[in-house]
Amino acid sequence: MMEKKILMIVGDFVEDYEAMVPFQALQMLGHTVHAICPKKKAGDIVRTAVHDFEGDQTYSEKPGHNFTLNASFDHVASENYDALVIPGGRAPEYIRLNQKVLDIVCHFASENKPIAAICHGLQVLAAANVLKGKRCTAYPACSPEVTLAGGTYVKVSVDEACVDGNLITAPGWPANTRWLAEFLKILKN
């Protein structure tokens, strides 16, 4: 497989496994992955959170790791990347308020480049208005946002993914294996 250049948009309290696992796995396979965050530059950190499913009405949250960014948000040009990854956690609820984040997402959608979003990452796609007519999944609490944005929410088990063209989505980190496998299939094209 040819090496791809992948952009990952994160923020403070991004879900640890949804950022760290794809960041490391995609690099292990020879891809270049640049992790960026609004208002931060290469070498800065974002704090992560570990979300777990312990039988409560929603996930629990525990402190995760410090995740070091390796690219500067202000210097990123979307046209230089082949694919986009948007992890979940709490970061999507506020990074979606940044117009440049939305512009980045719109670029990837309009150019039909692969977009992999997981969990609450769909909040960013909904805010960018790129879900109309798309089938996708997300953390179940985000299903109303998917629907309001014109997408079709697909309920899948927590360890499954949904693929619609170049859009790969999953409900949470237990689906990392399937989500990344589907993303890699799309990257080969």
How would you describe what is shown here?
β4 (45-52) and β5 form a beta hairpin. Strands 3-1-6-7-11-10 form a 6-stranded mixed beta sheet, sandwiched between helices. The chain is globular and about 40 Å long. The chain has helices at residues 16-28, 91-95, 99-110, 122-127, 143-148, 176-188, and strands at 5-9, 14-15, 32-36, 45-52, 60-68, 83-86, 115-118, 135-136, 152-153, 162-164, 167-170. The protein has one domain (5-188): Rossmann fold. The termini are close together. The mean pLDDT is 96. With 189 residues, the chain is of the alpha/beta class.
Brief descriptors of the model:
Rossmann fold; 29% helix; alpha/beta; 189 residues; globular; 11 strands; single chain
In order across it, which strands form the biggest sheet? 3-1-6-7-11-10
Number of helices: 6
The assigned structural class equals: alpha/beta
Tertiary shape: globular
The chain-level mean pLDDT equals 96
Q: Portion of residues in helices?
A: 25-40%
Q: Please name the CATH topology.
A: Rossmann fold
Oligomer: single chain
Number of domains: 1
Runs in which pLDDT lies below 50 for 5 or more consecutive residues are: none
User: How big a fraction of the residues is strand?
Assistant: 25-35%
Radius of gyration: 15 Å
CATH architectural arrangement: 3-Layer(aba) Sandwich
What characterizes the major β-sheet?
A: 6 strands, mixed
In CATH, what is the homologous superfamily? Class I glutamine amidotransferase (GATase) domain
Question: Could you give the count of β-strands?
Answer: 11
Q: What gap, in angstroms, lies between the N and C termini? A: 9 Å
CATH class: Alpha Beta
